[in-house]
Amino acid sequence: MSLVSIEERTSPAPGAAPHALWALGFRPFYLLAAAFAAVSVPAWLASYYGFGTLRVDLAWHIHEMMFGFATAVVIGFLYTAGRNWTGLWTPRGRVLAAIAALWVAGRAAMFFGSPAFAALVDVLFLPVAAWPMYRVLQRSGNTRNMVLIALLALLAAANATFHAARLGWLVMSPLAPIHLAIVIVVVIETVIGGRIIPNFTANAVPGTKPVSNARIDMAALVLTGAAGLAWAAGLEGMPGAAISAGAAVAQALRLAGWKPLVTLRNPLLWIMHASYAWIPVGFALLAMAQLGLAPASAAVHVLGVGAIAGLILGMITRTALGHTGRPLRAGRSETAMYVLIQLGVLLRLAAALAPPVRDVALIAAGACWTSAFIAYLLTYSPYLVRARIDGKEG
Q1: Is the torsion defined by CA of 164, 166, 172, 176 positive or negative?
Q2: Torsion angle, CA of 30/31/32/34, rounded to 10 degrees?
Q3: Where are the alpha helices (DSSP H) in the chain?
Q4: What is the pLDDT of residue 4?
Q5: Which of 30, 113, 143, 192 might form a disulfide with 118, Cβ 3.0–4.6 angstroms?
């Protein structure tokens, strides 16, 4: 059974179909994630520069990018994929609406609530969202994909650790568990990307034969996880840098075998390759940071904006097109989103590496990010709230 195949099943569902928005997990969670992405970065920049009355700190910003934005997309994707893997319905209708409402409550609590109240509400989301996914996999006997439940459990543990540190219950920086969460998501992308990116490329570009080497794949996965653990543990100097550099080399070799240059005329493909390419760049910058040669924020934003958000934008367009019955073809809107997110990471990298242009580059990067997700909302909201155009369920 494929780990990432999310083609649609057509078996009938019991009972009346819910409203289109609640028909399958990708619909509300992609919509909520994009809306949150579009407002949260401007809110952070406004607070950072002292505008308005809302005051949010760096820990809030990086937490919400991972445990707000990214986890919403992960859950939406897994609910949608799980339907195909198992032939069973993942949460939909009122259950899906309740889980989405819990995510919204977490975001509101993180904005306006006390740290203790925010912790209470926010830590509930991942366990509550993961449980029905676990039950569907268990009932179907789909043990292969249980690894994803384990990764969700690790994310939930990292989130709980963040809140414990923020409340002073643990003597550690609250940023350390978020760094671990970034790497957990990158590991998920390493697993899923290795399955879908070569396949998408081979299917869309006739005559192309992407190469996957099992040893390089395993080295990339192991070194990426090890580098993330070392980073979260605060390992500095040559030992940490060597592991990070090894992850960068392994990931770069892996990507090279997938023939990224043949995808340049297909935006739905090149966004995947270009975004994945930020993974080796991010670990190379992390190695430099561990040697004191670059700021750590450069690595954080290359991985967070370039690799995670870039791949997310590629997937929430592609899967939304496919699961609303539309052709897998990028138009001007999709191409604009992809260019904006890539330009955004370049500008954010410039802000980290070139202090004289930091403020201008930071604001411009935020504008690119926000514009990309506003474009998604304008284009995809009508798709996500209406029934499939081919009449199928989901």
Answers
A1: positive
A2: 80
A3: 26-48, 58-63, 71-86, 93-112, 115-122, 125-140, 146-166, 175-204, 214-232, 237-256, 267-290, 296-301, 310-323, 332-353, 358-384
A4: 44
A5: 113
